[in-house]
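Example with several molecule types.
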Amino acid sequence: MPHDVLSQMPRPTRFGSNDGQPPTRRDGELKVTGRAVYAADNHPDRMLYAVIAASRIARGRVVALDVAAAKAHPGVVEVLTPDNRPALAHDPNEKIPPFGFRIEVLQDDTVRYPGQPIALVVAETLEAATEGAALLDPRYETLPARTSRDDGERFAPQAVGVGSPPRTSYGDVEAGLAEAARVVEADYVTPAQYHNAMEPHAVVAEWDGDRLTLDMPNQALALSAASYAAYFGVPPGNVTIRSPFLGGGFGSKAILNGPQVLAIMAARMLDRPVKLVLTRAQMYGPVGHRGQTWQSLRLGMDGDGRLTALHHRSLSATSTFDDFLEPAANASLPLYASPAILAEHEGLRLDTGTPGPMRAPGEASGSAALEVAIDEAAEACGMDPLAFRLLNYAETEPGNGKPFSSKALRACYEDGARRFGWADRPLEPRRMRDETGFLVGWGMGTAVFPCPHFPAEARATLRADGTALVETAGADMGQGAWTALAQIAAESLGLDLDQVEFHSGLSTLPNGGVAGGSAHTASAGSAIDGAGRNAIARLAEIATADPASPLFGAGNIGVEARGGRLVRRDDESRSERYADILARAGQSAVVGFAKAERDPSTASGYAMYSHGAVFAEVKIDPSLGQMRVTRLVGAFAAGRIINPRLARSQYLGGMIWGVSFALHEEAVTDARTGRIMNADLAEYRVPVNADVPAVDAILVPEEDPVVNVLGVKGVGEIGITGTAGAIANAVWHATGVRPRRFPIRIEDLIGHLR
Amino acid sequence: MNRFDYLRPTSVADAVALAAEPGSAYLAAGTNLVDLMKIGVSRPARLIDIGRLPGLDRIDWLPDGGVRIGALVRNSDLAYDARFAATFPAVAEALLSGASAQLRNAATVGGNLLQRTRCAYFQDTASACNRRHPGSGCDALQGENRLHAVFGWSERCIATHPSDFCVPLAALDAVVEVEGRAGRREIPLDIFHRLPGDAPERETELDGADLIVALRIPGASAAFSRNARYLKLRERTSYAFALVSAAAALDLDGGTIRGARITLGGVAARPWRARAAEDALAGRPADERSFAEAAGIALADARPSGDNAFKIELARRLVARALALALAGTPAVMPALPASPFAAAAGADHAA
Amino acid sequence: MSLSVSLTVNGRLRTIILDDPRVTLLDLLRERLALTGAKKGCDRGQCGACTVLVDGRRVNACLALAVSLDGSEITTIEGLADGDDLHPVQAAFIACDGMQCGYCTPGQIMSAVGLIAEGRAGNDPERVRELMSGNICRCAAYQGITEAVIEAGRALAERTAPSERTERSLA
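Resulting structure tokens for the full complex:
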């Protein structure tokens, strides 16, 4: 198999504009007709239904399950408990690197959090399995639940997030604070949040001998296939995951969880296909969440408003048995030019399911606190919040002085402020009212998100008819990968989009990496681009070596791929159709392949981030405190945009997540039992359509010659950063009340209203 | 969900007879009951499907100008009935502020009265709840209770009734018509739901087999049609239960209040009619001062049942605001955001 | 106890023998009739992903027991397009990018079809937003959804003859 390492190749020709082309979603028709097949839509012959029984206690032991009652229910086939569940080939208490977590798969009768699977009921119908699980009527030996900052164990973490440093320090923060003319210190609290993708986690598992086929939504196909293979003791190649559509993921479907493993186990045990779909309530436990944080910020400013020190500390909650700490304090590292920055984390162990990466892990919660603190600092200095941010603009990455691969943040500030009308903002709070007397406030925040890169591979096949098949095991959870990646493929192959067949969402295809870290388009896209160019190069070799081709002998001069033809670089009139080249060579196809990785020297030499600026208007009832975000303008620079229509949708979605962070979502835990008391979609409130009357995203042009071969950065997560803080700052501007707890509630305000 | 027998009687009398057997429950649209069965809160042995019973889906106007609403009339059909919405606008506004369009299309008037509390401890079968399981205790008392009752609660139960619809109904002297084994009787809506006292499991004045067949709003209540509002505070703009809500209606004689109606929602196990405040407004000038005083009277006896003292102040302000909105007049067109404080906010295009 | 239920699903009369009265309309469609377009997001009437039309009205299929709908006419997302021709609401959702992951989309579209038939929103985006609030989209494609509903409403109004339109609005 030919193999290109792209970073060693010259940069390709850019086709199309920097703003890309805006075709609609290629899978749009499937989605609007109900023909898009999600995991739970599958129904193989002889399929059984599995339903999880979940723990209602936070800590202790299951001492009794009425398995007999469950089995006596008509239709129930089997009940898996620690007593009868088959062994696994890999210890579930041991993590599988790089992203594995410790999982709960009935390995014993211990309960470590509410919602932990304690049995699996399998039945002929969904109704029977559901009732069978209810009839288990578990009895527990209950230990006191550790649910708060006061009763959880504190610890110094080895890492936060996925392998990020728990403590980073530049300069002397204490000295910076000591010399500051003004110091702002404040504490902020962010709640536990749950991904709540509209599609609950689901799997249809089917064994054929020791070969396993899984229909499941999955953000990391190759890694997951290898992990499932490890748990079940079969070669990785024996596991096929089909994930043509994900009904949202937001990080929760990149991680392998216990329930799916149990369903696979049941399918093997019973030798029948098994479908498991978590209930909405069961989404609040074994499938990750954004952990709570308690953050403290200290900012020092000199007489002009320049930062002298920035200290961001986060106490981040995790489970008692595994570590994923919301890396909130690290949000303060890349953004503002302070000569001294200290970002540090402490861990807190609670009797909860293990948190995990949730859309902008760390950046979201850290940015929410940081951007409010920045607003407080601007207020302390008597400065406009935008002027304050511009004064403290980081020209190079703070602390290490690395150049940014690109940073059009100034343009974001400028374009966003102009579209929003920021210049008319009074400095003082409580100065604006609308015609009906509602308090009006304007706030802003800076958005930032790093640009990681996951190794990815792709294959491009130019076929005899001149069309192409492009393949990579990627994931489209709504970001539009099926469209944007196909666009990249078409461009690299010199074909129109409709001439490219794009296959993805299947683990047996070349490893497309992980759809996470807002890096999928960049990572899988770079591989696709390389594969396409590799295929074209091979086609060019055939043509230029063929005396019958008009391109014969053009090897040194080179050819370009355009409109389904190879064109001699120095002579437009000499060109040939792909189909003709292949036909004459008697080949049915030519195959290109590439693997894209980030060049280590790029990684070490540059700071690479997407940037943005978010401006929010809130209106607040002057006595009742009811809030509404009436206007939201975000301006984002994320390198080259492949498809502006879809990128815009990503920004808007992210910004509405910011609305949710600021005003709505929060898991409410009973401190005595550890149970989440709003584990649904009625009381765990995410925004509805009426919550977001006017959201606008500006795509700020930006060229990035460094970040990757395509110049593509990430757009999926940045929208939430900056937004939560902008809204909180707007609430302050409307009311004079400084929110320091998320979500902001009516009762936080009404004491200050009349 | 447990297995159950499914029965579909063809007359009210048959339904009542069938329901006499213990373990029976009436099923109408099921928007609340089926949900409660899914989460194990309700496990009836027999469902008596009354959804097709003849004659219960009509809106009839009465000689006194009042209206009789069949128990199976769907929430949306009632809210969008032009004459109804013009005569009892606060009721229509309350209906349209509740749940979602889909749920309003299915949910029935009778079922709305019988929806169960949204108290998380009632819904969580692992928690102690005297309402669900008499004598087991009330985990809400020391639990997450910022949304709980500030009126009429007891140490046995601090849950609230979640209906929006019932709030203006109580204000407008609606009456519930009930068919039981002993025949037909009537129960005023504002006492239809029982306060918890020592027996929170007895949620309404209905007995075992009683079936709600209709609601009546008396013609006299139409006097408020020009000055009636429902106002609801929520933690998102739509598709949320009330934090606190209020129905306010004024019968004006020039600038003087001839009569007033005030009922609070989300504050007690029943819609909380504030009769003393209503009485205090009679004969008074319709102005902010009167409204503020009335609001103070309305909340005078409120007391927090937990971490919810803010609701009392919020409710006080809400009553004053609802009265002010009522004074401003019933909107000619239903607001785009029914019952929302943002219903009148500028900046959005409200023209339909 | 076996129950016989007659439903007209997407124009086709089907008589279904149910061995279990617990089956909801949603589970009937998805697990027993192979109509998986309607989605289960919460199974409790809290998200709208399961929205279908019952006798022309949008409802949550997850909260309706199938047996109780005997004799009803059900329209699901699969029954919306006319052969290869997309329904105007479907076309508008694509054009306005009123979706991301697509999971809530069938419910959004059926809800939009119901909303337009109800005739209560007109071209007022605020009314559309309010009346589409029973359909949660966690990806938050709300702006595109609102635009799509308005655009489709316009397209349908143009398609409908004036006399028919009057009847529709009075219905």
